[in-house]
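Ticket #349: bound-state structure for iron/sulfur cluster.
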Amino acid sequence: MSGVFTPELLDRCISCGFCLPACPTYGLTGVETSSPRGRINLMRALETGVLTEDDPSVLEESSFCLGCRACEPVCPAGVRYGALLEEWRDHMWRGGRRPGRLKALLWAVNRSSRVRALGLPRRHARTTRRARRGPHLMLGCFERTLYPAVSRSASRLAPELSVPSAQGCCGALHAHNGELERGNVLAHELGEALPGLIVTTAGGCAAHLAGVLGGERVRELSQWLVERHGVEPPGAPRTPPLRIGLQDSCHLRNGLGVYLEPRELLARVGEYVELPSAAVCCGAAGTYSILRPDDSARVLDRHLDEIADADLDVLVVVNPGCYRQLEQGVRRRRLRTRVLHVAEVLLGA
Ligand code: SF4
Ligand code: SF4
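RESOLUTION: The complex was predicted; output attached.
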């Protein structure tokens, strides 16, 4: 089955194995096929027709992979694994092979009108002022529904951002779940709805938009705050200071290299504690926690252990999927730690 992958992407891997220790699923199983190198070999076998898409390993590993891209920054050959995975899932999850729960999710965010309807009952940020050339705050699709306080906090921290409510999904969900072309179309539509610079409170959306529209069009909120306002917090730090940890957004860190900015900001408002697995995927991974709840919980466990050991007051996130995953995990374990978005913590929530 040739033509599934872009040849230059697939050819780049030199099979050195440097990526294996960085891969959370390889960490869980210790099995080569669950590693980045093993999966690239499966992709090559699919491309050359040695294996078909019905092969059990091909089916399992295209779904078991978190898509966290932790294999990218450690790769000496510059393999763009995230792009390969998008092409793989685009092939594997076409038509009838797409999981039912995924179809419903993608349908919900497929049209800008549906995304707006999702957010209507919630009090997310919105401005009537219409700054044509931006900068604009992106509301996201599920964040505007599940965590509307995030955009309200971001808007208060950066009042120069206009927040038009007529904006749809960025397409990251589609691109990562077998609808690559639709994901790119939605990113372009959002780019037209929000001309100029787009500031987002979701690391995954930042990476997808930057990939399609170009990095110069996109900033994640903490990046924007540091660039525009410096690292001084808007209010006085609490006394005694809060013990604050952070969960990186995989795509923000591994895709865009943004991880210092939230740490710099948090160190100004409390006692920042670097968790050993702060940079490792929490298991939310877009739709992963919905499609593979048991594996997602296994990936989350070590994070919850570390949060408990560190006795954190607050665990900070920079992506709505991580927000939901860690909030639910902390609640299940009955930990005292609150989970909050960086925008909420900076405002003193
Ligand atoms: S994306 Fe993450 S889970 Fe998938 S192969 Fe790379 S490191 Fe492993
Ligand atoms: S993906 Fe990169 S680090 Fe992993 S085996 Fe291939 S070349 Fe080596």
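RESOLUTION NOTES: Strands lie at 136-138, 198-200, 218-220, 243-247, 271-272, 314-317, 338-341.
TICKET STATUS: resolved
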